[in-house]
Fold D-xylose reductase [NAD(P)H].
Amino acid sequence: MSSPTVKLNSGYDMPLVGFGLWKVNNDTCADQVYAAIKAGYRLFDGACDYGNEKEVGQGIARAIKDGLVKREELFIVSKLWNTFHDGDKVEPIARKQLDDLGLDYFDLYLIHFPVALKWVDPAERYPPGWTAPDGKVEFSKATIQETWQAMESLVDKKLSRSIGISNFSVQLIMDLLRHARIRPATLQIEHHPYLQQKELIKYVQSEGIVITAYSSFGPLSFIELDMSSAHNTPKLFDHDVIKSTSQKHGKTPAQILLRWATQRNIAVIPKSNDPTRLSQNLDVTGWSLEQSDIDAINGLDLGLRFNDPLNYGIYIPIFA
């Protein structure tokens, strides 16, 4: 089984369902990537900040060597971390990430957050994280325009086929589009029934930019981070609306949540260690929810965001 694709404004096709690499442990990462490729996944969503790109590359290399897939059949996504926003730091870190992955180019490279932090030498600390060694936040003076122009140069130099953004607001996107020579191909955001961001999605899709949802299962990804809001929020898998829709369609709660997104042309990047769930999570496009199902899930919106620097004790209120 494989995922259908969506056409990006850069002209490339991106799978609608991919495999997310956040919190994939280094000791199992290569095997998980290999297993996901074997199960039919072609999009892998990673980042410098995840600290596992060497292992991701090992899994990819093994799958290619074993004839499971060709490089051109994969869609590899990574992200520029906050400490590399200065214009002269973008290309060197992109090249380091490609070297770690063992690849010649990204299919898509994103600005991870609209936050420019002071440069940290990768030889001293990698991934650099949010704060300096003393625990303080140190900002860079790099503007989004400066960073975006450096991102555009990655396309010019064929280091990335497409470029995009993540965790940006409408206001920031409007500003970026005023000066962008190459428009962002995608916007990646936290998106689940408890945080639907309807107006953001409406605006971004109207501009021809594809939305990718992360944390599609809501609080589930954040419980292990000991986040109080995640512990105190009902799990979506156990919610009566999701459970009843699951029973109605003979699908798992995870499939219902993923189909709720893909049916509205929103790409998803779930992950799983379980072979059965790997296949189930890919099977979220060949069937449809009824409008009444979608309306019921739409009614669960709480405006509840989990992936916020404030929730990690870091005072960078970008979503305020």
